[in-house]
Amino acid sequence: MKPESRPDAVDLAERWRDLAAGKIIPGWHWHELDDRGEVIMKPRPSGPFRALTSAVATQLVNKLGTRVCCEVPVITNTFGVRVPTIVWAPPERWQGIELNEPLPFVPDLCVEVLDPKHVGHRTDLKIAAYLEGGAREVMVVEMSSGITYWDVRGERQFPALGVELSLGQLSPCGVGGCL
């Protein structure tokens, strides 16, 4: 793929399939594609990140019901194929969707759980890409500082979809992780 070209959604999906099949980087499973289709390798998630992700997903399932999914690739209009930590969309948006492919839409809710051991998240670009792609809300969860809520107007004090997470339930050790 030429570095100066910007692939469309079909090209990004094809590149994603090749990447997921190990044709580009064998054995590497934590990755995204930027807006030019170039691979962004993500470090393997830490244990505290996985525990926090599970706690957030459980709360979302309890509040929203089914169709809460973790690590589902999403094609964005401006930032390539990204993999939000957790997504949710109403059941009717999932009809006919193949979960082995990147979603052709950005779900209504995208959650980014940030792993404190990894730097360079570029969360600002992900928030913008999800919202520009049609997300109604983006939540960013950080172990050390809690949760921020975003919609197309910017950062919000309260969640736009009315789904508030309880910080005390996010980790068996509370916010900040285990010591």
TrEMBL record:
Domain of life of the organism encoding this protein: Bacteria
InterPro entries named among the record's database cross-references: Nuclease_put_TT1808 (IPR012296), Restrct_endonuc-II-like (IPR011335), Uma2 (IPR008538)
Record-annotated Putative restriction endonuclease domain positions: 31-143
Protein name per UniProt: Putative restriction endonuclease domain-containing protein
Lineage, uppermost ranks: Bacteria, Pseudomonadati, Pseudomonadota, Betaproteobacteria, Burkholderiales
SUPFAM superfamilies, per database record: Restriction endonuclease-like
